[in-house]
Amino acid sequence: MLIGVSSLAAAEEIIGSWEPDSVVSIHSPGVATLAPLKTIPHLRLCFHDVEHRIAAVVGGTVRPATQVAAGDRHLRTFLNFLESARPERLLIHCAAGLSRSPAFAILALLWAGASPLQAVHAVKVHLPTAQPNRRVLRLAEKYFSLPGFAELAAEMFTYERGPSGAIGDVLAGAAIIPNHSHPGEIKGDGRGDSNPLRSSL
């Protein structure tokens, strides 16, 4: 399986040129995204690029968070989509291609049989500007029973966050991530430490 990661702005062009057989659109509530695609399986997931559920306290009363964070239902819906579509060329896009879509690319690689190290390394190598959403990584840790995965995976990337999510240049094209990384290829994580997922957990 090949996984393409892109921004919303680049998605239509990538669909036309790369011809994925399945597409996942991740967007924030109230924000426009790709119209439903008629000819190939197309999943749309709706949540903000936030990493924690933050409730507001108003006048001593706790009110529900105003932003929708990724949850178990988003993860299960995505994995069920993969089981049904069985994609060979999967495009995942979010607003900027920096946070939510790289995190779901890691999920897809884990689903496809990659080891935790292979999955994270593949995204790091092919999309070095990625800032995979750490809440999604924590959901993956829980679902795939990988204690310590989220923290160790996050150590392999550089994060810059603002109130609306990841800060950085919008991904102009697409990063194409193959599912054939091999642990033996790893020469370090690109940040000068010896993490490589602590011997792949």
Question: How is the topology of this model organized?
Answer:
Layout: E1 2-7, H1 8-18, E2 22-27, E3 42-46, E4 56-58, E5 61-63, H2 72-85, E6 89-94, H3 100-111, H4 116-126, H5 134-143, H6 149-154, E7 161-162, E8 165-166, E9 174-178, H7 197-200
Parallel strand pairs: 1-6, 2-3, 2-6
Antiparallel strand pairs: 1-9, 4-5, 7-8
Helix pairs in contact: 2-3, 3-4, 3-5
Characteristics of this structure?
Protein-Tyrosine Phosphatase, Chain A, about 200 residues, alpha/beta, 7 helices, single chain, globular, 5-stranded mixed sheet
In spatial order, strands of the major sheet run: 3-2-6-1-9
Q: How many domain units?
A: 1
Please name the fourth-level CATH homologous superfamily.
Answer: Protein tyrosine phosphatase superfamily
Please identify, by name, the CATH architecture: Alpha-Beta Complex
DSSP helix count?
Answer: 7
Short description:
This protein is an alpha/beta fold and 201 residues long.
Description:
The chain is of the alpha/beta class and 201 residues long. 34% of the residues lie in helices and 19% in strands. The protein has one domain (2-48, 68-182): Protein tyrosine phosphatase superfamily (Protein-Tyrosine Phosphatase, Chain A). The strands form 3 sheets. The protein has a 5-stranded mixed sheet with strand order 3-2-6-1-9, with helices on both faces. α2 (72-85) crosses α3 (100-111), α3 (100-111) packs antiparallel against α4 and α3 packs parallel to α5 (134-143). The chain is globular, with a radius of gyration of 16 Å.
